[in-house]
From TrEMBL:
Species assigned in the record: Naja naja (Indian cobra)
Cofactor(s) named in the record: a divalent metal cation
NADP is among the record's keywords: no
Annotated compartments: Chromosome; Cytoplasm; Nucleus
Listed name of the protein: Histone deacetylase 8
Gene Ontology CC: one annotated term: cytoplasm
Biological processes per GO annotation: heterochromatin formation
Length: 278
């Protein structure tokens, strides 16, 4: 079912994409994502320019821009790594709440993001951290994400949302940590979209280039309310999607290291912290 809201804005610039393609860790990733979005004929369903205020691809600057119009902005980070940079930028304010679901383990970058890290000063309890272990799968991840965001929404009452959707949580990523698929991330995205708030959606990590393009193209379809065909359309980077040439990503056999008791403990801590939010 297609959404009744105004069509999303799609931010694209040839020079910006060229610069992203030159990054040594993700060569050509930006072009692959754009080419697959285009191959699925999704571009005509989106606007190519913003109105009212600027749309920026940097989370912190984007939030600052949104704050000109909206009193409270919620930042949700579903990347594999803790969203420490955005959290640090707004750790002293109650006008921006940051929520990060991420891997938290000894020696894993950046080493921050325990559930006890809640912000500072006036921003105390406005930072929400959900530390996770390797192997988490779609069902557990979505249930946890929904439970946290339900309470966050009720307590914080945001006027706008910035949502960062890294693809390094996806099965097959070289980080070898979480065991999600685009469908799992898509359910989290849909949960946020059903709030019907102005929402800025950003990419993030993702180091298996073809799977990252698969993931972000699938999520673009979710935003547009469109179900995409399984078969990858013929396009410039078609050969990168072998040997199966389909949009779906199969989970691995990686065991889930997240104990149910620990998940409940984390949820209990988050609920307790949110009681202090006004």
């Amino acid at each position: 079912m297609e959404r009744s809201q105004p069509p999303p804005v799609y931010v694209y610039g040839a020079e910006y994409v060229a610069r992203c393609d030159a990054l040594s860790k993700v060569p050509r990733r930006a072009s692959m994502v754009h080419a697959l979005v285009e191959a699925y004929s999704l571009l005509p369903h989106m606007r190519d320019e913003a109105s009212g205020f600027c749309y920026l691809n940097d989370a912190v600057l984007g939030i600052l821009q949104l704050r000109r119009k909206f009193d409270r902005v919620l930042y949700v980070d579903l990347d594999l790594h803790h969203g420490d940079g955005v959290e640090d930028a707004f750790s002293f304010t109650s006008k921006v709440m940051t929520v990060s679901l991420h891997k938290f383990a000894p020696g894993f970058f950046p080493g921050t993001g325990d559930v006890t890290e809640v912000g500072l000063g006036r921003g105390r309890y406005y930072s929400v951290n959900v530390p996770l272990q390797d192997g988490i799968k779609n069902e557990t991840y979505y249930q946890l994400c929904e439970a946290v965001l339900k309470d966050v929404y009720a307590a914080f009452r945001p006027g706008a949302v910035v949502l960062q959707l890294g693809a390094d949580t996806i099965a097959g990523d070289p980080m070898c940590a979480f065991n999600l698929t685009p469908e799992g991330i898509g359910k989290c995205l849909n949960y946020v979209l059903q709030w019907q708030l102005p929402t800025l959606v950003l990419g993030g990590g993702g180091y298996h280039l073809a799977n990252t393009a698969r993931c972000w193209t699938y999520l673009t379809g979710v935003i547009l309310g469109k179900t995409l065909p399984s078969e990858i359309p013929d396009h410039e980077f078609f050969t990168e999607y072998g040997p199966d040439y389909v949009l779906e990503i199969t989970p691995s056999c990686r065991p889930d290291r997240n104990e149910p008791q620990r998940i409940q403990e984390i949820l209990g801590c988050v609920k307790g912290h949110l009681k202090h939010v006004t």
